[in-house]
User: What shape does this take?
Amino acid sequence: MTTEPTLSADEFNAAVTAVTSAFGDPTRREIYLFVRDGADGITTAEVAERFDLHPNVARHHLEKLTGGGYLTVAIGPSDGGARPAGRPSKRYRAADVDHSLALPLRHDDVLANLLARALDALGPERAEVLADDVGYEYGRVLADRMEPGDGHRSARTAISAVADALTAHGFAAHAESDNDGLSIVSECCPFGDTATRYPHVVCALDRGMIRGMLAGLYGETSPRFEASRPDGDDHCVARV
Assistant: This one.
């Protein structure tokens, strides 16, 4: 009989961080339940009216849930609110509960071994380029789910959304700001031993994801990666 491997301390902390980040606020929990019960999707205006919130506050809660993977967003018919006549509005729906509320993805041993052998066959340089490309493409897919259409966010809100998405993927990430600019700090790496064996490739995948999400949410940019857990640092830092 096969048993599920026990979560490591880092994986457990990442799972707790992901859920707490999304649902630690009681209003946000109620908003999630409200959206979940809306068969045709819920708009920002509807959330603001239902919970007596300023539209910007309602949008913040919705984007927090969307960035964490708990809601999906699509362009729908105009809600008749403050938008210009005929302009479509974003409609939020609950994502698959079984998927979005699960613990960080566990990597199957057979697939992990296959990945390791493939990386060995490619060689470090080609593998790193491929990982960056794959990460970038996946990041763009995530951004499209969070921000359908052509509208981009400010750098600050984009970075916060990227951190939320990374947290939902097991990175336990958060956004920081200081005199040197904005940064994304990841406290955990969900790739475990694979990151230890192939740090540059796994880090290239992470970098690609961040670049891809930022490209979709804000615009093409070149973050500086100043720290890395596989290299012995306490956390990973991407500064924008």
